[in-house]
Amino acid sequence: AALDRIEDVDIPGGWKVGTPVPYAALTKTFSLIEATTKRLEKTAILTSFLLLVIQRSAKGDPKSLLQSIYLCINRLSPDYIGIELGIGESLLIKAIGESTGRSLNVIKADLKKEGDLGLVAMNSKNSQKTLFKPKPLTVPFVFQNLKDIALSAGHSSQAKKVSIITKLLAACQDFEAKYIVRSLEGKLRIGNAERSVLVALAQAAVLAEKEKSSKKWSQDRLASRLEEGANIMKAVYSELPSYDEVIPALLEVGIDGLREKCKLSPGVPLKPMLAKPTKAIGEVLDRFENKRFTCEYKYDGERAQVHKLENGSVAVFSRNSEDMSKKYPDLVEQLPNCIKATTKSFVLDAEAVAIDRTTGKLMPFQELSRRKRKDVKVEDIQVRVCLFGFDLLYLNGEPLLQKSLEERRELLREHFIIVPGEFEFAKSSDGETTDEIQTFLEESVKDGCEGLMVKMLETDASFYEPSRRSVNWLKLKKDYLAGVGDSLDLVVVGGYYGKGKRTNVYGAFLLACYDADAEEYQTICKIGTGFSEEALQNHYDTLKELEIEQPRGDIKVGGAKPDIWFEPKIVWEVLTADLSLSPVYTAAQGLVEDRGISLRFPRFIRIRDDKSADDATGPEQIAEMYERQALAQGGGKKKKGKG
Ligand code: ATP
């Protein structure tokens, strides 16, 4: 039934085949999605909108669908191109003021009441009397303007941004202002994860095919085609995470031809496979019982996905698919030395690790994190970096994801050359007993590593699973063995002014985890001990620029009362000795109990600038950690279902 709903919507200005998608149609879709909490219904609404986009696009026009999809996931380009929104609140308030003539103080007061600047913008617009109706906004127009905003840089860029936003807002009707402002803030908050967008896209393609087909489809056929389509789309996108590639191909060859047409290809980074934490060697053996597995050093560096194209160009991508070639010009320069002449194109999964120039010893991650992220010049580099290759995902025109790790590793070793201090294979041991693993673990720690990665070697359980935290990769860190458990990556959302000597800086911070399904930050703890004066000053300098008076609407505050709030942007890695239920904080509320979970005695480890706020630890992981701890203490609680 949800599929009929968009048809009923009165779309201003009409929307004929071959004309641009009205922005009003998209925002109406958003508002319908936001109005329901049912996941299937959300997807169905989006499906029907996308079906209309496909059917009403002119022949050979992939742009309408492409831009609609980008606006649905609130991005403007693939991750690796990195055109980002995330405009600060004060700039937006200024633009809302300018386009509606309301005073900034009134807007701020409204924001305090509503907690959502999008809503405030919409209400401000709708309470305004307009003499004439503005020209309707279209998806391509909004998309282009958002892109111009994101790309404007330089000293007059603030004024330019405000001016574009003001003009956009002036043309907004109905729901449009709400979603434009939220898009600009960087979060749509309609509870529509990217996974569901992929499913909706696939379903729309299948439905378009059904409508075109001359035969009648049975209900069973339709259901199985929808499911099959969604699976194809998810698999294809995980190999080639670029709508710029996938959407034109989808429109050209249809869902069935997609697998053949869209394969992993050098130049488009895929989301890396991740590991599950384990607490004891026994757990590893339980999981991998009777299967062959390998233990590798878990190097303490930065993930580096290295791509070499057929034309010779090389790029290094981060864990987040950011292009890091400018941070690691030395890696790019070193690379040709370690590739055999027969190795024409590849995608290599590796860890970039700092090493001491004279002793050749591994150095901790902190050494690398001192590097600038851009425009590093080879001659200025102090710390040398060595690449430790551990997986090969593509070689000479062929994706290898569906080969066993054993085969991939063999190809890796065959096609690359060890250059000590520049390129090495991750040290590994295919040992099988507790003693062997224990010895290798101790050795890894002595050599300056964090511990071990234990990986399934054979059968389909050892395929490379992009973007998954897989049970076929286990991490065994020395910290876990000491009983502290895995670290968490948390977003700094608030600050507490310091006391005594520390009055000029923040003395403590409010941290939050991130719920990707609900698109919200959930507070988890206050952290304030263990910072040096210098560290506090550095944190202050970074966070000062992100200050906002009110918590953003997507922060689930609970009872936390920091002195000042921040735009959620900075991610810290934190260790904790203990997790406890809390009446104050909101992390994982409803997962274990109605109360949230908080960290006791949290300890700051490092800034994770390779992670964005959306990559922070999620509530499920926190609930899992809490339950493990409860179990270890002998009083396990059953997990409640979510929602
Ligand atoms: P962590 O804080 O442990 O790095 P994470 O979420 O970034 O957490 P995990 O899946 O927990 O990633 O751990 C895997 C990370 O360890 C990889 O992203 C990679 O950067 C690093 N690593 C070091 N050595 C290896 C190895 N031999 N194989 C795979 N990953 C390795």
From TrEMBL:
Keywords: ATP-binding, Cell cycle, Cell division, DNA damage, DNA recombination, DNA repair, DNA replication, Ligase, Nucleotide-binding, Nucleus. Its EC number is 6.5.1.1. It comes from the Eukaryota. It is an enzyme of class 6 (ligase). Coiled coil: none annotated. GO terms for cellular component: mitochondrion; nucleus. GO terms for biological process: cell division; DNA biosynthetic process; DNA recombination; DNA repair; Okazaki fragment processing involved in mitotic DNA replication. GO terms for molecular function: ATP binding; DNA binding; DNA ligase (ATP) activity. Residues 378-515 form the ATP-dependent DNA ligase family profile domain. Belongs to the ATP-dependent DNA ligase family. This is DNA ligase. It comes from Crepidotus variabilis.
